[in-house]
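Hi C.,

You asked whether I'd gotten around to modeling the 324-residue construct. I have! Everything is below, sequence then structure, no commentary in between.
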Amino acid sequence: MKLSVIITTHNTEKYVAKCLDSIISQTLPDIEILIIDDVSVDSTPAIAQEYSKKYDNIHFYQLKSSCGPGGARNKALQNAHGKYVAFIDSDDWLDLNYLETMYNRAEALCADIATCGLVREYDYSVSVPIYKCFYKQEYVFSGEMAFRIMTNEYKYEIKYLPSALNKIYRRDFLINNSLFFPENIFFEDQPFSYTCTLAAKKVACIPGVLYHHFKRSGSIVQSFSYRNIDDMMTAYSIIKSFLTENHIYEKFRYNYYASLEHFYNLIIRQIFEFVLDENAKKKYLKYTFEKIKTLIDVDEYIEYLSAEELRRHIQPNIHDTTIY
């Protein structure tokens, strides 16, 4: 078996057929498709079961109790047989040569992880494509180099996303290094990406935008609750513990704060985009202030920031520091 495609589903009855059709039509032979449903209450399981009856290489599993997208992926990974593993969200879709392109380059380069360009798709038209990452040529990095790019330490005019979606992983690399997703939280990709990238000997970035990531109304990133805050803080608590326990926190402290700052800003943006009531916004903001204190050492954070960045925190509306 060349490759196992793991698809987690949860109430995506409107989208899962398009996702599956893009996978069963792939040009790469010898693949298996594992669909694992995380307690859907719509017709998603029935659609998945219909596909599994029609195609011998599709296997369907339904969880009795929810363990989140990370837990669902872990359970599917235990049943995967492919040399490589790909993770797909059930409302996304692939170019038909995605798996063949990724598999062939990963094999040729002996890569632990291979990634490609990702484009955002919407249920309305956009004037220009929105690429989350895009590679004009092939790049091959060590895991540490990819990690430094991912966490914005190295700005080399390319992005390496902290996402499991637009990537394939050598399965024995994941198993031998005990690389699994945290369960029962959103933002599960962040801890997984930290551990995987740092463990990898070789990471390949493949030209071509082959993965289509659909941003739909009502998805995790298009709604807001206290869980968004709690789960992001849990994800970064896991990351900090991983760095500390492996005695690499000091080495990668800059990367930790740069990444934490980026995703904390994402939470703030979500509050202002999806929460309409002024008092509710203030409550959420206060809650983030209380939570973020558990992840930040003030002295370390001040050391991480430049003097100019500190000034902008104190004087966000002052751009001209000239004294007249």
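If it helps when you're writing up: The longest strand covers residues 203-214.

Thanks,
B.
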